[in-house]
Amino acid sequence: MAPLLITHTAAAVLGAALAATAAWQVQDWRLGGQITSLQATHATERARASQAAWAAERATSIKYQGALNVARTREAALQRDTARARAESDSLREQAADAARRIAHGAAPAAVAEYATAVGELFADCSRSYQSLARQADGHAADARALRDAWSGMTTP
């Protein structure tokens, strides 16, 4: 009877080992498929995230470049306006100098001539100062607008 018990026990152990090996293999196939599926899903999501980040970066770059182009156009217009103002100021300065010369050479009293000369010089100084101030203010406004246009879509954390 002892050999029969050993044979049955050995058969039971061998059957259990085969069942365990089969179960292990089935689990490997099932979980291996899930892992492969998860890896594919992860790769797809990573590719989508990469594309979204690239698209956002591209949109920001395009917006920034557009704002720079607008700022450059605005700067060119400001320079033209500055040149026009300078030409008008020079013309006014010449007119004031001419008036001062006419007053100085005319029959008018000396006080009138001094007054006209002083007014002309004062006007010229004021005109230069205002041009400089306007150029600085326009430059500051252009810089501020360029920054606002370039980063208006950005939000702070």
Describe what this molecule looks like in 3D:
The protein contains 2 helices and no strands. The model has no long low-confidence stretch (mean pLDDT 83). It is an all-alpha fold and 157 residues long. 93% of the residues lie in helices and 0% in strands. The longest helix has 104 residues, at 2-105.
Q: How far apart, in Å, are the first and last alpha carbons?
A: 82 Å
Q: Please give the radius of gyration in angstroms.
A: 44 Å
Derived from helix and strand composition plus strand pairing, the structural class reads mainly alpha
Helix share, percent:
over 70%
Morphology call: rod-shaped
Number of helices: 2
**Average pLDDT across residues?**
83
Sketch the topology as an H/E string, one letter per element: HH
Strand content: under 5%
Give the beta-strand count.
0
Summary keywords:
157 residues; mainly alpha
Task: Summarize this entry quickly.
The protein is mostly helical.
Write the layout of secondary structure elements.
Layout: H1 2-105, H2 110-151
Helix pairs in contact: 1-2
